[in-house]
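Obj: model holo form, ligand = magnesium ion.
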Amino acid sequence: MLWDNYPEIKQKLAKVEEIIQKSLRCRSKPFEEFLHTLSSGGKRLRPAFTILAAGFGKQENEKIYDAAAGIEILHMATLVHDDVIDDADTRRGKATANKLYGDKIAVYMGDFLLTRAVLLLSKSLPEDRLEKIAGGLKSICEAEIEQFFSRFDLSISLFTYLKRIARKTSALFAFSCGEGAFLSGCDEKVQKNLVKFGFYFGMAFQMYDDVLNLVGDEAKTGKPRGNDIKEGIITIPLIIALRKNPAFAETVSGIMADKKVSDAEVGLIINEILNSGGIDDTRAWIDRYLKKSRYDA
Ligand code: 2DE
Ligand code: MG
Ligand code: MG
Ligand code: MG
Ligand code: MG
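Output (holo structure tokens):
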């Protein structure tokens, strides 16, 4: 496990895990079984951030564990629906809900997870904070809707991409830190810094996810490589390569004109992104955002 060398986090994550496992109980046994399998492959990054952020406060508070579990289950709900939208066959190295049971059942599974997340968050957080989270969820959906309707649109700017990933990914990381900080009684300034860390880390995380979608090892990512290009999701490495290499932009525009990209064309596009420095330049953007995430005392 990712946290094996951090016994203190590991021990606290075990409490979160117990809550997650209980929350996945369902009258439908096939549902329960699938959700346990999906759950078992996660890194638990967001709940670990909740716990780490809570370490900055003085108060011990059992609600931290419910909030951490709620955020992780919320994340799982978005993944199940995301795989429907992205038409993805694998997740965490295993078949997705949509692949195994079809889109209809996968929608129910995501919905079920959402109900469990709402319960845990409403048990652990006051109304004004729940309202902020609800607003964040609205933003996640809006970013996804906007991304869906601009598939294969090569005119997307880097700025639009950055705003989109801020909504679809960073928001949940920001909450995972912010709620831990709040529940442990951190003062305002510390809470703000931790939210800022989560937000900028989330930006770097999504950019790295987008790199891995192009050049990652499927055995490690557990997700289908090249799927973003197949689905017409235009991410930062491609945006940079299109801008740097006008001849390549012409080629991609020809390939994507019919909104269909063959496996061979996916391979060609990935190669050209690499040759044009799209991956290297994205790594520089990732570093920039990781620097921004640093804590200022
Ligand atoms: C990750 O993008 C983005 C996740 C947000 C998905 C949210 C949806 C709305 P990726 P990967 C679909 C659902 C909202 C609910 C249930 C409240 O790059 O690479 O597609 O892991 O992620 O597939
Ligand atoms: Mg996806
Ligand atoms: Mg997606
Ligand atoms: Mg991705
Ligand atoms: Mg085509």
